[in-house]
Structures are given as C-alpha cells and as structure tokens.
Amino acid sequence: MGPPGAGKGTQAERLVDDFDLPYYATGDILRAAVNNGTELGKEVKEYMDRGELVPDDVICQVIMERLDSNEASDGFLLDGFPRTVPQVEALDDALDKRGRALTAALLVDVPDEEVIRRLSGRRICVKNQHVYHVEFDPPKEEGVCDQDGSRLIQRDDDKPETVQKRLDVYHEQTEPLIGRYEDRGLLRRFDGRRPPDEVHDHIRATLATLRLEAEL
Ligand SMILES: [Zn+2]
C-alpha cells in the first residue's frame, strides 16, 4: 500500500526478484484473465466492456484462481488489492477457506506534500513521452526535451489539483485498511521519503525476518 508516486511498483519489481514470488497487480491479472478466456475472464471482460468497475468478489476470484494454480504455493505479492474494507474481508474469507493468511501488509508511506512535489514536477515531451522532473531531473533547456527538442508538458494527471484529488481518494479508502492491518499486527511501515535502494533494503530485511519466523 502507499499513495500515488510512492514508488510501489519499483519496490514490487525488486521484491519479486529477491523472493521469486508471483506478482499480482490488479490491472495486470484482470487483463491476463480476459486474455486466457476462462469463464471468469469472460465475466471480467463484460464488466470492462461496459466500462464498469469489476466487483470485489470477482477480482478476488481471479486472484484465487491464480493461487489455486499452485504457482503461488510459496507465497505471492499483491499490489492494488485489497483497496477497500469490503475487499479486505473478501480476501480474508477466500484465504481462510484455503488455510492461508497474509504474512504482512507493507505500507510505503510518503507525506502528501512530497507526493505533490514528486508528481506535479513531472514533465513529458509531446513527441516521444520522455520523462523529466523540474527539480530532480530537469532538461538542459527549460520546457524543451533534451533528446528530440520537442515541447515538454504537464499531464492532466500530474496537475497539483488532480494529484490532491487522487490523494483524497487514497486517504479515504486506504486509511481504514491501514488501521485494520495495524490492529491485526500485520502492518509494516516504510519511509518512502528515503532513497529507493534504502527502502528496498528495509523491506527485504523485514520480509526475510518474517519468513524465518514463519518457518520456525
Ligand atoms: Zn522527447
């Protein structure tokens, strides 16, 4: 878990390498289910074609289909699910039926003002979508792409007011989850303001310890 711009995707990629875990990012596994053309995939496709959100229990079934395939017998990493309290409950029920449970809920925490600074400083070139940051990775000439000379723009998604809206949604949805996982002793917090390598070392060490404890 973590706000937009916290670097969850980067951290997840590294953990998948470290621990050789299947990685279930919600959007990806829903698309994979559609492509596989299973009964469940057809159902997912109908929701997507209608432009509707895929219901919690259907997302949960897609994840469970993957768990039941044995590829996740040694563990798995979830990203983007659960995102709401009903999703937490659906996931718990489904894991419980299989005699399984979550090991930890990882939170990469970044304060709102830092998220806004990171995302609203991003600039993209209009020609090839090269990415810059006005503060952390500025182009040589302001507003111009170093690589192709095209104009740099700010995507609507990165405008401060849009970022703030995304943060509002994140806080509203995710804070209750954080509280729940904290109460159950599953929450592990990581300081997302630290450099990505450091965040990664910290998460890896935490998971290695939890794994050892689970084996004892
Ligand atoms: Zn460019």
Quick rundown:
By secondary structure, this protein is mainly α. Helices cover 52% and strands 12% of the residues. Residues 125, 127-128, 130, 145, 147-148, 150 line the site of zinc ion.
Give a structural overview.
With 216 residues, the chain is mainly alpha-helical. It has eight helices and seven strands, in the order αβαααβαβαβββαβα. The strands form three sheets. The chain has a three-stranded antiparallel β-sheet with strand order 5-4-6. A hairpin with a 5-residue loop joins strand 4 and strand 5. The model has no long low-confidence stretch (mean pLDDT 92). Zinc ion binds at residues 125, 127-128, 130, 145, 147-148, 150.
Notable features of this structure?
mainly alpha; 3-stranded antiparallel β-sheet; two-stranded parallel sheet; 8 helices; 7 strands; 12% strand; globular; binds zinc ion
Following the backbone from N to C, one meets helices and strands in this order, namely HEHHHEHEHEEEHEH
Helix content: 40-55%
Count of individual helical segments: 8
* Average pLDDT over all residues: 92
Oligomer: single chain
SSE class: mainly alpha
Radius of gyration, whole Å: 19 Å
Adjacency order of strands in the biggest sheet: 5-4-6
How does the overall form come out from the CA principal axes? Answer: globular
Classify the beta-strand content into a percent band: 5-15%
Which ligands accompany this protein?
zinc ion
| Terminal CA distance | 27 Å
Number of strands: 7
Low-pLDDT residue spans = none
What kind of sheet is the major sheet? 3 strands, antiparallel
